Amino acid sequence: MVFKIAKIGSKRKIIDAPALQDIEPFKYFFDKNGKLKIDELDAIDGAWTRREILARYLFLNVVLDQGPDIPGVRDLLKKVTNALYRKEIRIFHKPLDFFRELNISIDEILDKHKSVKKLRAKTWAKLNNANPSKYNLFFAQSPRGIISINQVLDYGLHRWGVPLCVPLLLEKDLGKKESVQPLVEYIESFLSSETASKEIKNHKRYGLGSAIGNKACHLFIKWYIHTFNLSIKKTEGWSKWSYEVPFDSNTGRVLLRTGFFLSLADLKDYENWNVIQKGKGKGGTNYIRITNIRGKKAQIENIDKKISKNYKDIVLNHLKTRKRKPTTIEIQQLPNAILLNSDFGIGDFDDGLIYIGINFCFNHKNPKCNKCPLNKICKGFNKNKSLIKDYRT
Ligand code: SF4
Fold first, then answer.
1. Which region among 8-22, 77-91, 225-239 has the lowest average model confidence (pLDDT)?
2. Is 272 domain-assigned?
């Protein structure tokens, strides 16, 4: 199943990724077919490499992506970026410009939010069974998860300002040293992309802290290595198996319904771990809180010898999260071990999950199983319909 999903993903490389080619200051970075010119990523644009500028944009994008309505969020970021650059406020080339011209930055966020709302509110309301007037991309974190807020300064400074401050601080900290890509060098200073994903949030000086969640950190690494091919390091620690899947709601739904999770632990285990929260989903269904799966151990005794050997290699040499041979397997790292040394990486697997989640495995009781490419091997479809009916993300 893991191979099949990765194969599906590999055929659709750019899935659900930001359309960087539509950002005006980046238009020369792409060819006429909208393909990123990878061999020109080291070309200098202003004071920085193209690789650095794109990494800065994705760094901000991934933080904003945690809000509601991803197409709206991406449109907002695109529109604000284009508007600011037209006014010579070059926030990715000179992050300080965002703060120096704070009145204009805030005005543009408010103005473009209005136009995105006009375009997206009805579609969003239909998909979420909500009132279009409630459409709001400004958000904050609460103990219950993401909540909407109305204060543009809170949103603008916390969600836009913090990720813009990271390259700014790195640049200031250079002192007399020279660099044309301080953010890139910082990200790739870690032994593995998995450790980088943790430090993006937790680093004492440069960490984004509460501005970013675990999933978004992994999504940034996936974009950086797999989707946009920005990484320079070619070591095992930066391989296509060197980071965990950025588990989101699509991933959770597909992997539960197909039976993948149930082959590693039973429903009771997932309930005890709060991965499945009984009766807390829409209409009294069971809610799948996929983020709670990180760190949970597979409850199986006889693991295939090859997978077990691969897992050791993954943990010690690719993820580099442990120093000693592992005695148990963490569920979220199993796809890495299965795919190791194959043509497919974690990015392909995640692309496949998103493709199936968005196009077939809808978050309601009637997904498009008849057309789904996994229908021959899906446990929910073939054996246990309650996995479809009774679980939501
Ligand atoms: S067959 Fe149905 S339940 Fe299974 S993954 Fe596909 S859409 Fe989801």
1. 8-22
2. yes
80 in a structural domain: yes
The answer to whether the CB of 253 is under 6 A from ligand 1 is: no
Residue that terminates a domain, selected from 187, 206, 228:
187
For the chain, the straight-line distance linking the first and the last C-alpha, in angstroms and rounded, comes to: 21
Q: What range does the domain containing 182 cover?
A: 18-187
14: confidence class by pLDDT, cuts 50, 70, 90: low
Q: What's the rounded Cα separation, in Å, for the pair 169 and 149?
A: 28
Helix (H, G, I), strand (E, B) or coil at 297: strand
Please write the tens of the pLDDT for every residue from 340-379.
999 999 999 999 999 999 899 998 889 999 999 999 999 9
Q: What's the CA-to-centroid distance between 370 and ligand 1, angstroms?
A: 8
Q: How far is 165 from 175, CA to CA, in rounded Å?
A: 16
Please tell me the distance between residue 195's alpha carbon and the centre of ligand 1 in angstroms.
33
pLDDT in tens, 132-185: 999 999 998 877 778 889 999 999 999 999 999 999 999 999 999 999 999 999
Q: Is 322 in a helix, a strand, or coil?
A: coil
Q: Which one has a higher pLDDT value, 168 or 305? A: 168
Q: Give just the sign of the alpha carbon dihedral 274, 278, 281, 285.
A: positive
What is the value of pTM for the model shown? 0.95
Ligand 1 atom closest to Cα of residue 360: 7
- In the chain, pLDDT over 90 holds for what percent of residues? 85
Q: Are residues 176 and 254 in the same domain?
A: no
Give the residue, by CA position, lying nearest to ligand 1 atom 7: 361
Task: Tell me the average pLDDT of the chain.
Answer: 94
> In b/e form, how buried is each residue of 188-206, taking b as 16+ CB within 10 angstroms?
bebbbbbbbbbbbbeeeeb
Whether residue 372 has its Cβ less than 6 Å from ligand 1: yes
Q: Is residue 233 part of a domain?
A: no
Contact between 194 and 234 (Cβ < 8 Å): no
User: 191 C-alpha to center of ligand 1: Å?
Assistant: 37
369 C-beta closer than 6 A to ligand 1: yes
Ligand 1 center–CA 242 separation, angstroms = 28
Domain presence at residue 221: no
The response to whether residue 258 sits with its C-beta less than 6 Å from ligand 1 reads: yes
